[in-house]
Amino acid sequence: MAEDGDSKSLASDVAEQIWIGIKTKEEHQQQWSSGWFVSYVNWHEDEKHFADNDACAVRNKEGVWFITSCSRSLPFVCEYSTAVPPQLKSSVENSYCPETPPAWRDLGGDYCYYVDTKERVTWQDANFLCMRRGGALLSIHSKEEMDMLSRFVQHQDYAIYIGLYRQMDLDEEFVWADKSELDFTLWNSNEPNDVREKCVELKTEDMRWNDINCNEKRGFICSIKKIAPNNTVEEKSQISSCERGFSLGDLVGVIICVLFVAVLIGAVVYYFRLCDRGYVRVKKEIIWHQLTATIRI
Prior knowledge:
The protein has helices spanning 5-11, 123-132, 143-153, 232-237, 241-244, 248-296; strands at residues 17-23, 55-60, 65-69, 105-106, 111-121, 136-137, 159-167, 173-176, 199-203, 208-212, 218-225. It is of the alpha+beta class. The strands form two sheets. Strands 4, 5, 6, 7, 8, 9, 10 and 11 form an eight-stranded mixed β-sheet that branches. A three-stranded antiparallel β-sheet has the order 1-2-3, with no helix packed on it. Strand 7 and strand 8 form a beta hairpin. The termini are far apart.
């Protein structure tokens, strides 16, 4: 349902409400049951967020969309199309998203994505949280990538941080946090409009960008490069000890290091004590010889 004109004429004579092909299988991801991403919406003004994972969509005679339980029995309208939904293809066959930390989403292409709108943070904190997951705040490099992302985050009433910011030592030019080339932008009208606003948010309602004060609190979207099949061992080796926990070998290594340091400190203390004792003995001998010489005189 790219446009609503055809469906409106079909549905007006059917019932007060009919099913349309949207089901929220995953948080913030809207996709038609045909596989196409959602490029047209007409939600009721109260339908800002999906209540749960068992949420489907209906439309009334006026063409307005509502969220309701998928278990209801309602009329429906079908369509048939031979067109194939667009999707970015990965440059590496059989590449996949990291399993840890969880919740990376594969939308096609060479990257996986993670969106968090519940934890509202500053741009710096958002960048840190993405780095802690092994990725970076999102960088975007083509209209095709924006179209792909739109089915993941579009048409929800919120704004999220992306990885674009003003680099102070580069005449305040915008750069990506992941150091990739700035070869694509999608600014909102009359944006960017304030040099004091150093960071960038993405308005999910229309997927346009806006410069913003970095201390404003927003949700955020991270990206990470997919793993090639032959990089499995390397990927596992990059998991930090904090993530995998201490093993017995780690514990033994720590104990050995502590013992080595203790022995080294003991040896140094013992050496200085010997030196001190030798100094005292020599000092006593000097004093004794001085006294003996005085008595003789």
